[in-house]
Amino acid sequence: MLSRTLQPYLLEAARAMPIVTLTGPRQSGKTTLVRAAFPELPYVSLEAPDTRERALADPRGFLRPLLDGAVLDEVQRAPDLLSYLQEIVDGDPRPGRFVLTGSQNLLRLDRVSQSLAGRARILNLYPFSLSELADREPWDPEDANGPDPDRAAEKGRSLHEMLHSGLHPRIHDCGLDAVPWLSDYRATYVERDVRQIVNVQDLDTFRRFLGLAAGRSGQLLNASSIANDVGVDHTTLRRWLSILETSFIVHLLRPHHRNFGKRLTKSPKIYFLDPGLLCSLLEIRSPDDLRVHPLRGGIFESFVLAELVKAYAHRGARPPVYFWRDSAGHEVDFLVDAGRRLVPIEAKSGETVPGTFFDGLIWWRKLVGDADAPALLVHGGDEMFEYRGMRAVSWRGL
What we know:
Elements: H1 7-14, E1 19-23, H2 30-37, E2 43-45, H3 49-57, H4 59-63, E3 70-73, H5 81-91, E4 98-102, H6 110-116, E5 120-124, H7 130-133, H8 159-165, H9 169-173, H10 178-197, H11 203-214, E6 219-220, H12 223-230, H13 234-246, E7 250-253, E8 269-272, H14 275-281, H15 287-291, H16 296-313, E9 321-325, E10 331-337, E11 342-348, H17 359-368, E12 376-379, E13 385-387, E14 390-394
Parallel strand pairs: 1-4, 1-5, 2-3, 3-4, 11-12, 12-14
Antiparallel strand pairs: 6-8, 7-8, 9-10, 10-11, 13-14
Helix pairs in contact: 5-6, 8-14, 10-14, 11-12, 12-13
C-alpha cells in the first residue's frame, strides 16, 4: 500500500475531535486508509444491505456495542445514524471515537451537516496524487519557485498513459487494465449510484448529459447550453451538476473575486477530477488516441487542477484555487490565493514550450503592476527551466 499524504492529518484530527469524517469519491482509498490508521477500532460497513437494515431499523441497538468507538464505512447509506451519534458524543465527547467515511460530501446534506456541526472534522480523500504515486513529498503550489527540478527526472509512464489510466488506487495497486476498470466504474458508480441519488429514470439522457459535460471540462460552465443539448430543463441540469460535485466527480472552479478594475466573469469552470474517468466518458480508447485528441488540452488542464486540489485537500486544507478571466477574454487558468500574494498558473499540454505559452502570465504581470511577480507554467514535456523570471514546470514535477 502506498502511503497517503492525508494519514497524519487524519490522525491529528482524531486526537482533537470525537468524530472524524473522511469523504471522497468511491474507490479513492478511504476504507484502506481508515483501517490502516485506526486498526484498533471495530469496522462496520453500511454498504452491506443486512447491516444497513439493522442500523436503520434499530439505530440505538445497532450502536450500543460500538459505544467505545468504531469505523462506520459509507455512512451516507444510513444518514439518520448521525443524529444518534450526535447524542452519544454530546454525552461523552472523548476524541477519536468514531471515524466515518462517505462517498458524498456530507456537509451538503442538511440533516447530516447539522448533526456533525461542532462535533466532527471533515477531511476529503481523492484518488492518488502524482506525488503519492511516485512515493514522494507533495508539492507546494504556493512555492513561487515551483517543484524541485529533480522531481521531473523520475521517469515512468508517459503523460498520455498516465492521463488515460487516471489515478484511482486500485488500477495502480493491482496493475489493472484501466479501460475495463473505468468502464465498470462508470456503470456502477457514475451511471447507477449517482443516477439513483437524483432519481433519473432515463439512463440514455443521463449518459448524454455526462458525455456533454465531459466534453466541456476545462471550459466556462454554460448550464443553459448543456441543458438544451441534453433535452432537460435548466433546474434539472443544475441539480445533476450539483450531485456530480457532491459526489467528487467534478469540481466547479469559481472565478477569483478581486476586480483589478475589470469586469469579471461570474460563471464557474467545470472540471472532471480524474483524467482517466474523463477519458472514459469521452470514449478515448488508448493513450495514442489521446495524443491526437482535440480535447487533449482540456484533459491536461483538468489533471493540473485535480493535482492542485489534492495538494491542499490531502493536507487537510481547503484548496484556495480560482481562475481569472475578464470580459475581454484575458484569462489565467488558475490563481492560487496564498494570502499575501496570488500565484498564477497556466497549464499547457504541449511537450515543446514556445515563448507564446507564457503570454497569459506576462499579461497578468502587467495587470498587477509587478514585472517580477511569481508565475508558473505547467507543461506536458520533461524540461524545467526559467523564462523571463517565470518557472516552466514539467507535469512530472507535480
